[in-house]
Write a structure and sequence with these properties.
CATH superfamily: NAD(P)-binding Rossmann-like Domain
Distance between the termini: 44 Å
Shape: globular
Strand content: 5-15%
Number of domains: 1
CATH class: Alpha Beta
Number of strands: 7
Structural class: alpha/beta
CATH topology: Rossmann fold
Number of helices: 9
CATH architecture: 3-Layer(aba) Sandwich
Helix content: 40-55%
Strand order of the largest sheet: 3-2-1-4-5-6-7
């Protein structure tokens, strides 16, 4: 069971990539962490890698496109650890497609994961946190949602722009209930998903085009998420923290 000194966090899309980095940082900070993913086996393995004994982590299946799935995972975690305090909406899906060739099926698939998933997570856990009088929600947005994107696809850029707006909407709704809602907007990160999009023979030129001269570090994005999830981060809500290597300045 959880205590006043132990916080419980749920990270979506945590079987690998950025989500796994965020889960690792939270675990290192003493959180009990639920790593969730559409890939249940991957989530279970990622959780076991962090904590072989299974005391501080658990891996669970979660389809973020399904509002009821969020509620079911919430209830599982309350039964297991007594409460949930932090939600990190990280689950994402992208596909490099020419704008005019995006089909309605592809558009729906990308938007339902990136935007609907963040909405349902904020809605289900926002209500739960508000009832308890405390909670932290961190949404992972993207540089693509700020500048229109490029290789990530117009559907992904549109969805991530929506995530940034949802962050403000839920922050306003929940601010009087002890719940903060913030976003992090990374630029291209040094992750397999980015290297899969950019051909190996073009990665050097791509990095040179970034003002700081390199891909972002996912470990730092994880540090940002941990900071926004902290108890004493209560004065920050509705914010979008940029980490894009200087590609977008405001």
């Amino acid at each position: 069971m959880t205590t006043e000194n132990v916080r419980v966090a749920l990270v979506t899309g945590a079987a690998g990539g950025l989500g796994a980095h965020i889960a690792r940082r939270l675990c290192a900070q003493g959180y009990r962490v639920a790593l969730t993913d559409l890939d249940e086996a991957g989530a279970v393995q990622a959780a076991a890698d962090l904590d072989p004994e299974g005391h501080a982590t658990t891996g669970l299946a979660l389809d973020v496109r399904d509002k009821n799935a969020f509620a079911a995972v919430r209830d599982q975690l309350v039964d297991r650890w007594g409460a949930v305090h932090v939600l990190v909406n990280n689950a994402a899906l992208t596909k490099a497609e020419s704008l005019m060739d995006i089909s309605s099926e592809s558009f729906d698939r990308i938007v339902s994961t990136n935007l609907n998933g963040a909405f349902f997570g904020c809605q289900v856990f926002g209500a739960y946190f508000a009832e308890r009088g405390y909670g932290r929600i961190v949404n992972i947005a993207s540089l693509a949602g700020q500048n229109g994107g490029s290789g990530t696809g117009g559907h992904y850029a549109a969805a991530k722009g929506g995530v940034a707006t949802l962050t403000k909407v839920f922050a306003r709704e929940l601010s009087s209930h002890g719940v903060t809602v913030n976003a992090i907007s990374p630029g291209p990160l040094d992750l397999p998903v980015v290297r899969d999009i950019i051909p190996p023979d073009k990665i050097d030129a791509f990095e040179r085009a970034i003002p700081v001269g390199r891909l972002g570090r996912p470990e730092f994005i994880a540090d940002m998420a941990v900071l926004l999830a902290a108890d004493h981060a209560d004065a920050v809500t509705g914010a979008c923290w940029d980490a894009n290597g200087g590609l977008y300045m405001r």
